[in-house]
Amino acid sequence: MSWIEITLRTLVSYLVLIIMTRVMGKKQLSHLTFFNYVTGITIGSMAASLVTDSNLQILQGTYSIILWSVLTVLLEYITLKSIKLRELTDGRPTILIKQGKLIEDALVKTRYNIDELNMMLRKSNIFNIEEVDYAILENSGELNILKKVEYQNYIKKDSNNSIKANKNITTQVISKGKMNTKTLDEFNLDVKWLENEIKKKGYKNLKDITYAEIDSNGSLFIMPVDKSKIKKEQN
Predict the structure, then answer these.
(1) How far apart are CA 191 and CA 212, in angstroms?
(2) Half-sphere exposure of 11 (CA within 13 A, CB side)
(3) What is the 3-state secondary structure (H, E, C) of 5-24?
């Protein structure tokens, strides 16, 4: 390749990358999930090939980057509507420690051993697993931890107040009118129980609920659909 061709390829690759990262948005830039991470690497590799591979035409290389980016954005829009597809591409958070108890099946499922878990705890300045009330492995691979009340730090304004128990960990059971049966199984609950609880709160149809979550005590929180927004869309 001539210096002019290399310069042209570099400029095209640079501009296309800037445009596509803006199109894909902040979620892609933050690498929230493994899928986002792989997508970012792939697009970067395509851009590098566009600059260095003389057998690849500029138009073809540019088309490949744009097509991959469009497919990524399209999939993200689809996963907003489909819980099952979202779980397939992004996965689900996994509870490794629940109410102070280690969930060994969850460790096996995520292919973590106890030494790796302790290492991740130490990164959060926790050197004793006994201090942990909840440990949740997020889709991004990050471990979020909630300490037991007696091990939590407190500030001066808390010194005159009695210590309160931890708030319960909540989990999604309904998203955009669709029920998440896996969550119900985790809490040893069934669909009929959820349907009865929904009726008790005055909801006749799942489509009237945009989001609902349940805590470890079985308390249900419901966020209804914004009916005013629906009317605007219909008009």
Answers:
(1) 14
(2) 6
(3) HHHHHHHHHHHHHHHHHHHH
**Rounded CA gap, 108 and 181, in Å?**
22
Distance CA 95, CA 75 (A): 27
Cα(99)–Cα(209) distance, rounded to whole angstroms?
Answer: 29
Supply the pTM of this predicted model: 0.56
Annotate 187-215 with b (16+ C-beta within 10 A) or e (fewer). bebeeeebeebbeeeebeeeeebeebbbe
> Which pair of tokens denotes residue 204?
């006749």
Each residue of 127-139: pLDDT tens digit? 888 888 999 988 7
Record the tokens describing residue 104, joined without a space.
């060994």
pLDDT digits (tens, 9 = 90+) for 74-103: 888 887 777 777 777 677 788 888 888 888
